[in-house]
Amino acid sequence: MRVLLTGGAGFIGQHVLARLLDRSHRVRVLDSLRPDVHTKPDPWTPPADAEMIVGDVRNETIVDQALAGIEAVIHLAAKVGLGVDVNDLPDYASSNDAGTAVLLTAMARRSVSRLTLASSMVVYGEGYGLCSLHGRVAPAPRLESALAAGDFEPPCPDCGRALGHQLVGESAPLDPRNAYATSKLAQEYYAANWARVTGGAAALMRYHNVYGPGMPRDTPYAGVASIFTSALRSGRAPKVFEDGGQRRDFIHVRDIAAATVLACERHEQGVRAFNVGTGTPRTVGDMARALAEALQGPSPVVTGQYRLGDVRHITADSSRLRGELGWAPQVDFKAGMAELARAGHC
């Protein structure tokens, strides 16, 4: 297929691009090379067998040109990060949501009917929890007073007891709790609107915590693995927030790329959300220890610090992606962490 890949110069985008080319797709990359993400002095250049257009997905003229002759779109371009600063709200709304709306409108004009959208597991908020009295419930928000007292577990909304953890399926209630999460959910809704009106196919890829070679370093958009590795390479102990028991599903970027390209190839009808994770919960402390071991650095330090808006636990059930599209993760956690430690970052 001839594929337009937005955000193809980014961390995940470069791996998706490599996967597309390996599978003999013809690829056009659209990327704004925004300076808060692309900090290197030399501009990124695509492989010789991929076409590159430098431009913003919010620019209607550029997007329309980028879609000429295209059969499918993989939309990764977005402002990422925690989204906890209220001053960032306009940029998230503009970069992610208005940009997606411009892209979808242009796709409708050009009769491009296949979309694969990079979403995120953060759309679930805290997901489900298990209360010993009330069963499966949506956790109540964590209050700053509780966090300051070292009470990190999300409470039952009915009785206030700490909740047990459960995997979250795609049918779970959606509860975005910061600006980034809200913008990703809005992208999903816009994609669903477009698909219903045009008859197009939209695969909504809810990525878990992505790590791997090429992660950005020392920027507001760096993932926790990148922050830990940067500290260890400087001889400093990685600082783990809260008590280190936050559960996540850490997934290698090559597995993310494989799932994304597979969805682009195989999802042909309707709107479908897919969790993209390994299915094996691990803690943030687990990651810090694995990286410290791989780099033979100092042991992690648990700080008790916290950030309002952070999710305590979110690990989702990815069986839909496995069953419907035939995908399975290939990179082992310990091996992936060792590779990340060796590879460094951009």
**H/E element string?**
EHEEHEHEEEHEHEEHEEEHEEHEHH
Structural class: alpha/beta
| Number of beta-strand segments | 16
The biggest sheet, with number of strands, parallel, antiparallel or mixed sense and barrel status, is: 7 strands, parallel
How far apart the termini lie comes to 30 Å
Q: Strand order across the biggest sheet?
A: 3-2-1-4-5-9-14
What does this structure look like?
The model has no long low-confidence stretch (mean pLDDT 92). Helix content is 35%, strand content 18%. Helix 3 (89-110) packs parallel to helix 5 (179-198) and helix 6 runs parallel beside helix 8. The chain has helices at residues 11-22, 60-66, 89-110, 144-148, 179-198, 224-233, 253-266, 284-295, 319-325, 333-343, and strands at residues 2-6, 26-31, 50-54, 72-75, 114-120, 129-131, 135-137, 164-165, 201-207, 209-211, 239-240, 247-248, 250-252, 271-276, 282-283, 301-302. The radius of gyration is 20 Å and the shape is globular. It is an alpha/beta fold and 346 residues long.
